[in-house]
Amino acid sequence: MTAPVFVVDSLEGVGPGSVVDVRGPEGRHAVSVRRLQPGENVVLTDGRGRGAAGVVVSVSGKDHLVVEPFEFPVEPEPRPRITVVQALPKGDRGELAVETMTETGVDAIVPWQAARCITQWKGDRGLKALAKWRATAREAGKQSRRLRFPEVADLAATKQVAALLAAADFAAVLHSDFDHVSEPLATAELPAEGEIVLVVGPEGGVSRDELALFEEAGARACVLGPSVLRTSTAGTAAVALLLGRTGRWS
């Protein structure tokens, strides 16, 4: 089994001969929950692509771990980069979508307040929901042994999503309306580098006005397959397909 991952604020200046103190919530999880002992291997990361694989030197109290790194892996910037614009699902299915997309390998997630979203992020409730998405991405990144965690952006309005699509090297909207011509995502021509942006609509689907705006911005209407996936699972399936097709899983 691979070594557990813990997040530190920074690995700047950490190199051969260094020791790193891990405290706070991460230290507590390592010492009091995982009950790590001296001699066990761990991986530290800043979540921005830098890592430090090392051995536990000592533990003290309930939340203090000292690690001596011996390897310094780096997870390069992804090529191409994959961003999923995720319409807000009902209940806790948004966190499920964030978790599984992170485990699969998405690079950025943009929450979107679509016209047909039942869930509304307003005021303190919206801030708390966004914080949960970000915490979920962080924990799923650790669980899946990633060194570069996905960015979870602020809540986007439809016009902001259109601007994001217009700037992308490849942009698509997952759309399964039989009255609208959609091409298979599995055969769409993809860039070798740059930015891929994919829009996943809400349970009620992307509205005609939204789809028209997105297509005007350069996005294609694409379909995953013959079955209709829930909004909380469509993004994960699409990311897996794109990672395979772009060679990032090769």
Automatic annotation (TrEMBL):
Domain Ribosomal RNA small subunit methyltransferase E methyltransferase: 78-242
Transmembrane segments: none
The protein's enzyme class: transferase
Main localization of the protein described in the UniProt heading: cytoplasm
Gene Ontology terms: biological process: rRNA base methylation
KW Membrane (keyword) present: no
Pfam family of the protein (one): PUA_4
Any coiled-coil regions, as ranges: none
EC number: 2.1.1.193
Localisation: Cytoplasm
Keyword set includes Protein biosynthesis: no
Catalytic activity: uridine(1498) in 16S rRNA + S-adenosyl-L-methionine = N(3)-methyluridine(1498) in 16S rRNA + S-adenosyl-L-homocysteine + H(+)
Family annotation (Gene3D superfamilies): 3.40.1280.10, Hypothetical PUA domain-like, domain 1
Family label: Belongs to the RNA methyltransferase RsmE family.
Entries under PANTHER family matching the protein: 16S RRNA (URACIL(1498)-N(3))-METHYLTRANSFERASE (PTHR30027:SF3), RIBOSOMAL RNA SMALL SUBUNIT METHYLTRANSFERASE E (PTHR30027)
Function noted in UniProt: Specifically methylates the N3 position of the uracil ring of uridine 1498 (m3U1498) in 16S rRNA. Acts on the fully assembled 30S ribosomal subunit.
Protein name (database record): Ribosomal RNA small subunit methyltransferase E
